[in-house]
Amino acid sequence: MNNVYLHNLYASKTEAGYSLHKFPTSLIKHLSAKGQPNAYTLFGSEIRFTIVSKVTVEVYTPNTAQILIYYGDYQGEFHRFSGSYTFQIEPKFDEEGLKRLSQYHRFEPNLVRIILKENMTVRSIEGEYVFPDISKFPKQKYLAYGTSITQGRNGFTPDLNYPGIVSEALGYECYNYGMSGSAYIEQALVDFMCENTYDLITLELSVNLLGDGYDVSIFKDRLSYLLQKIAQTQPHATVIGITILDNWRKLGFDQNRGTQKDVILYRNAFKSIMKDYPQFILLEGESMLEFHHLSTDLIHPSQYGMIELANQILKHTKM
């Protein structure tokens, strides 16, 4: 893992290679029992390097994972694999091509961005590449925190989630801290996220606490800490809170995991706490997404839904 830049990503050396995770190991132990394994489930995290000549990458996943290669902003190859997998990356543009493309990109076209989805270990990266010039990366930063909806659980490729679409439209670096099934707003995670400063923050919270039977008072306490911490550490950020989106509870399905009354209770709690932060923007979940833009599980946005969510957020950002 020498000469690579890890974006929204950490790596720990093991006998099998470098285990990838989206939070430092010192933080993972402070997450919930449900959240700890999700720290190793990667959505939108990236391995970056500047390519010189052909590079060979060997990875491993115990399940099924995906990799999408971008050359700067230019979409390249897609890989879906299980177990051990080896693939090659080659430069797409020569020096003359790079010069001609110089005004048409956010990232340099010789910057390889390996965008990841699901759990994986990197066994080796071999070939001709160098550490990238990070001074050329976008300066503005976007933090997206929320559930698997934010993570991009039902997107068919690693880049197809609303945080990725928003960051692409704005030209920002995206830090996607969506937690599938476990957006519990733990204090240690809040403190970690607020160590850096951001230009845009979105908070999609939290159908996970509702679905796992947490009393709304716990949601209110944890959300209050989160908003207070953001107010203290992010004085220049545009902060957008998003209440629970419409889902199957609206139609009366699976009442053992919360009802529409619970959804409304959580939404109202979010609204009441946001009143203390008039500088923040509140977007109401019931108006964020057409119901037919859900997947068949009736909770995760479809591909059209991800685009719709992104466009709703972009209406409220400083373009």
From TrEMBL:
<feature type="domain" description="SGNH hydrolase-type esterase">
    <location>
        <begin position="143"/>
        <end position="313"/>
    </location>
</feature>
<protein>
    <submittedName>
        <fullName>GDSL-type esterase/lipase family protein</fullName>
    </submittedName>
</protein>
<dbReference type="InterPro" id="IPR036514">
    <property type="entry name" value="SGNH_hydro_sf"/>
</dbReference>
<dbReference type="InterPro" id="IPR013830">
    <property type="entry name" value="SGNH_hydro"/>
</dbReference>
<dbReference type="Pfam" id="PF14606">
    <property type="entry name" value="Lipase_GDSL_3"/>
</dbReference>
